[in-house]
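#structure-requests
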Amino acid sequence: MRVYGNLQSGNCLKVKLLLSLLSIDHEWIHVNILDGETKTAEYLARFPNGKIPAVELNDGRTLCESNAILGYFSDQTPLLPSNNYSKAKVYEWLFFEQYSHEPFIAVARFIQKYLGMPQERAAEYQSLQAGGHKALQIMEAQLTQSQYLVGDELTIADISLYAYTHVAHEGGFDLATYPKIQQWCRRIQAMPGYVGMD
């Protein structure tokens, strides 16, 4: 199995971290999106959406979209509950990550860390702060009630949201005001098989 990604990307870290926690053997193929490696004819022939992470299974079938990949590999493992309600809560957090968290925190991080805060994007960067803090406040509130986002056991909801949350400071979001999130990050980092960003 081949996994195409870049470990400076939170979306790619999600997949790498899950595969490591589950001890799933794979070949990691580094892809540099800034150099246009996802836009080559060869890459697009395999993965038409031109994004990372992407997975090529042993039988040649492919998977894209980080949270869909998490769902695939966690099925029938403790990281995806079998109880219908708990499973739905996991997916609720996965959708939250894509619509209420990542568009603010990951984009602000990209502007600050990778683009070096160009003047033409400074107003956009500032506009992302309120939405990012709202997402972090929602997570903090949940983590005052449970060890993890869905109860007291790690799930793919935590893996998905951990990816960009633990580097939120690189987008201007100070986690010092979110003590429960900081504790949650440390719990995840203490897991056997944990891997972090490059």
